[in-house]
Amino acid sequence: MFPSLRKLLAASLGCLAVAGAAHAADRLVIAATPVPHAELLEFVKPMLAKDGVELEVRVFTDYVQPSMQTNEKRVDGNFFLHGPYLEEFKKKQKNDIQAVVAKIHVEPFAGYSTKHASVQDIPEGGTVAIPNDPSNSGRALLLLARQGLVTLKDPGNISATQKDIVDNPKKLRIRELEAATLPRILNQVDLALINTNYAIEAKLNPLEGSLFIEDASSPYANLLVGRTDNVDSPAMKKLAAALTSPEVRQFILDKYKGAVVPAF
């Protein structure tokens, strides 16, 4: 083989190797809960493919594994949590690995009952079920306080616990349970405060089927989260841009009809 031809071939192979490496780097694995997070990620897959990013969505039904697997670098990021949950997780795990890429949407939290038609019908000594993770239990208590069912020491404290209840006029029994189980035990309690993603999965309508619901000004915007080592990567920025695009805004408005609200 002539020397010039060898050089040309070597240069071509080098370019192919670089291109292959670049293609491999433009692959993202994102952990998400099913509704609406995984649905939104599936919606933007074709958009990302056109932009040179291959997206794999790994679906989880709990609130622990997506963050753990992000920290362990088993996935590139996650899409399921809100700011207060992220801060609570960081404190508990004593790390700052996870980093916010973008705010995507708000899932208004709501109270549901199959036994009662209004808040006023909830009986004295009734049972109220709320999520057991600290950020969402505090969120539930704030919403109960807004309905006048309890009074909190500090009505604006998003980290409130049951110890912060200073008045419980109906002597309600508040049970803290795994968030994903709440729709399944709804017929066993007088009231359950359920995250909208789990409510939608259980075919509950947050707008028409709840006794009360947060408004769109809720501070609990759901986040696309990466790690400090990839939060500024081109692929993650492309995913953030896709999830905050006009197309996704319209998809949210059309599909969820107010049960999920764009936060961008």
TrEMBL record:
It is found in: Membrane. This is ABC transporter substrate-binding protein. Residues 1-24 form the signal peptide. GO terms for cellular component: membrane. It is a lipid-anchor. Gene3D superfamilies: Periplasmic binding protein-like II. CDD domains: PBP2_lipoprotein_Tp32. Keywords: Lipoprotein, Membrane, Palmitate, Signal. It comes from the Bacteria. It comes from Thauera phenolivorans. Pfam families: Lipoprotein_9 (PF03180). Belongs to the NlpA lipoprotein family. The keyword Membrane applies. PANTHER family: D-METHIONINE-BINDING LIPOPROTEIN METQ, METHIONINE-BINDING LIPOPROTEIN METQ.
